[in-house]
Design brief:
By secondary structure, the chain is α/β, with parallel strands linked by helices. It is 34% helix and 26% strand. It has one domain: Rossmann fold. The protein is built from six helices and six strands.
């Protein structure tokens, strides 16, 4: 069995917990913001192997960022989540990325645009530029409400780690 520690980060209200709940439970959760850190896990098959994702869902409010370093230790991958309808949530990803690199090292990062069912305010050229500047290879837009690309975001995370660590041969991303 392969165990992968996944960080889910981004500003408060971007839909991190809703994304995680949809992925792990198959339910749409439109509730309160996470206080501190939430935790979920899910097992899936990748290349015939069981892979357990240990998913750490960080509260996005400024006051919770001081606990981030402790929870980054041992992380294998990060989902950097922004709300496609809130430009500031995208531009704040730089801070999340820097905190993650400082505390978890050079781990794969997946850029996740949430709430793709809403009107877009984040320019696709800005997304491409951010990815190029920071060496981010994967971007996916999701809607937890409509269950669009939710599994894809986490599958990309698992496969990126497996590919980086050569844990399973011939894993296509």
């Amino acid at each position: 069995m392969i165990i992968i520690k996944v960080l889910v980060e981004g500003d408060g209200g971007v839909g991190k917990t809703t994304l995680v709940k949809r992925y792990c439970d198959g339910t749409y959760f439109d509730g309160k913001m996470t206080i501190g850190v939430g935790f979920e896990k899910k097992t899936l098959k990748v290349g015939g192997d069981d892979v357990t994702l240990m998913i750490w869902d960080f509260g996005g409010e400024e006051r919770f960022r001081e606990i981030l370093p402790d929870f980054c230790k041992g992380a294998n991958v990060a989902l950097l989540v922004y709300d496609v309808s809130r430009r500031e949530s995208f531009f704040n990803l730089r801070e999340w990325l820097e905190l993650t690199k400082k505390n978890a090292g050079e781990i794969p990062m997946i850029l996740v645009g949430s709430k793709c069912d809403l009107d877009r305010k984040v320019d696709e050229d800005d997304v491409k530029k951010f990815m190029n500047e920071h060496g981010i290879l994967y971007h996916v837009e999701t809607s937890a409400k409509n269950n669009v690309n939710v599994d894809t975001a986490f599958d990309l995370a698992a496969k990126a780690v497996i590919k980086k660590l050569n844990l399973v041969e011939d894993v296509a991303i």
